[in-house]
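Fill-in record for Outer membrane protein OmpA-like peptidoglycan-associated protein.
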Amino acid sequence: MSALRYAALLGGLLGLAGCTGLQQDKDQALRAAQADFLAIRDDTYVLRSAPREVQRAAETLVHAQRFSGYWGGAEDAIHYAYLSRRYSEIALLQSRVERNQEQIARLERTIDHLQFALRESAPAFDEQRIDLAAEESNRGLLVTLDDVLFADGSFRLNRSANRILLRLARFLQFNPLRRVRVEGYADNRGDADDNLTLSRKRAQAVADMLIDLGVDPEQVERVGYGERFRVADNASGRGRARNRRVEIIFSDEQGAFSIPR
């Protein structure tokens, strides 16, 4: 066999192999495009939310199938199959976006309804104040949590604190513009720095519990004063117990506090 005839035969074989590979790519592209289109064709939600994209996916799939039957049309068939898949994908994504928007709208309506129901069911402010056992002070409305609400020498709340803190959380949820400042205090036994740290941790424990009960964190401030600002004489056990306390100061209706200590 001459070199010229051998080269011609080799070229033909390579061309045939290339055609076979292109044919396989075409068949694979068509199958993928058909599968994607079938996934959206029977989805009524997709048909309603993205009708144009579904139509274009169908049209380009028809073009791909038509070119697949032509000699030398494999590349065009792959191209149109690619377009069909992209239109199918766009239609599916568009339907998901619309569905999410509808869900958000429903949730917003539900929230509005619940907030309205909450406002309608809220007791009068004076009733809430009595429920909290709050009293007027020169720093505003005040609730005092006694030392018995904490384990001895600890910042961990006892179960007996749950009831009063539930009422506090309910009050703040009914009055979302009001805020509270949680102030921790200690007696003078032990190291002053340790007492300051304990007072801060107790204030933080109360604030954390209120937030866990659903109060907006923006409604809660916390501070520890340690041994400062005693309300009783530390010479007696009873006086020290009164000084170991957490005070909760309420803001006015606009969320403003009196001047801090």
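KEY FINDING: Residues 97 and 103 are 10 Å apart (CA to CA).
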